[in-house]
TrEMBL record:
Region of interest (Disordered), residue spans: 150-173
Keywords: Membrane, Transmembrane, Transmembrane helix
Transmembrane segments: 44-69, 75-100
Protein name (database record): Uncharacterized protein
Biased composition (Polar residues): 151-160
InterPro entries in the cross-refs: DUF6232
Domain of life: Bacteria
């Protein structure tokens, strides 16, 4: 038996797809497709907040330099304000690394709920629902590989995306 994917709740092998304790033998699975839900505005707002947090210290530093130069203060005060503003801008570097990492993870997880469906014993059944796009893509590809291998050994079985009574997938993850 070959294991194509495995985590705490999903296991895809050459024999079956197991999700949350339920097992679906590959020999009983027909067409497999996926659906994408609506965008999560919460996720998009979080990405916007990260962008503002990234720009905030740099904008504050630029404003400080501009104000110090515009007010024509004494050279000592101007240098102090410009120096403080530059330090604020430089302080954004370590913060930016953390924020860019969070932003990158946000895009890896995606902003939509994703569902994987299959025709099992003649009726549609939802195998998986998740908001994690990276994990969903790994599982979906594992099911594809398992189905392709099963189809090669028994040509009568349907493959992912083959025509049948269900429509073809509208989009790919």
């Amino acid at each position: 038996m070959i294991t194509y994917y495995e985590d705490r709740s999903v296991q895809v092998t050459s024999a079956a797809v197991r999700v949350d304790g339920r097992s679906y033998p590959l020999a009983e699975l027909g067409l497999v497709w996926h659906r994408r839900g609506a965008r999560s505005w919460r996720v998009l707002a979080g990405r916007g907040a990260i962008g503002v947090a990234l720009a905030g210290p740099l904008v504050a530093a630029a404003l400080g330099v501009g104000i110090a130069l515009r007010l024509h203060l004494s050279p000592v005060v101007t240098v102090a304000v410009v120096g403080a503003s530059v330090l604020v801008g430089l302080g954004a570097g370590p913060l930016a690394d953390v924020l860019f990492e969070r932003l990158d993870r946000s895009y890896a997880r995606g902003s939509r709920e994703l569902e994987m469906w299959a025709r099992w014993r003649g009726r549609p059944v939802r195998l998986l629902r998740t908001g994690d796009a990276l994990r969903f893509g790994q599982i979906y590809r594992a099911v594809q590989r398992a189905m392709e291998r099963a189809q090669a050994s028994s040509p009568a079985q349907n493959a992912i995306g083959s025509s049948g009574s269900r429509p073809r997938p509208r989009s790919r993850p």
